[in-house]
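Quick one, probably user error.
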C-alpha cells in the first residue's frame, strides 16, 4: 500500500500521470510519473504491523514488525530470560543471539 505525503490518503495503486515539461512548441516528450490518485502528490510505501495492526511507513518496519512492537518483544524476551536463566546463562545467550 501507499500513502500520500500531501493529502495523507492511503491507496493500493498509484496513478500514472503524464506531463509535458520543457519548452513549448518544440516536441516535448511527455514525462510519465506515478503519484497519488487523489491529488497527484508524492507518496511512500506503508504496511500494517502484524502484531499491533497499526499502519507504518515500510522503511520503519523490521521483518514486518513496527519499532513499538519490536521493542516490546525484546523487553519480553529480556524479562523471560531474567526469570528462566542464571546470569551466566544469560551472558552466554546474549553472546550467541546478540541482543
Ligand atoms: Zn494525495
Ligand atoms: Zn506493531
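Nope, works fine. Designed sequence:
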Amino acid at each position: 500500500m501507499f500513502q500520500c505525503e500531501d493529502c495523507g490518503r492511503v491507496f493500493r495503486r498509484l496513478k500514472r500521470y503524464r506531463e509535458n515539461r520543457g519548452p513549448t512548441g518544440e516536441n516535448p516528450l511527455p514525462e510519465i510519473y506515478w503519484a497519488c490518485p487523489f491529488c497527484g502528490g508524492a507518496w511512500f510505501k506503508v504496511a500494517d504491523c502484524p502484531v499491533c495492526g497499526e499502519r507504518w511507513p515500510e522503511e520503519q518496519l523490521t521483518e514486518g514488525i513496527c519499532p513499538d512492537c519490536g521493542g516490546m518483544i525484546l523487553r519480553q524476551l529480556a524479562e523471560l530470560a531474567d526469570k528462566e536463566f542464571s546470569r551466566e546463562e544469560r551472558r552466554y545467550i546474549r553472546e550467541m543471539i546478540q541482543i
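The longest strand covers residues 15-20.
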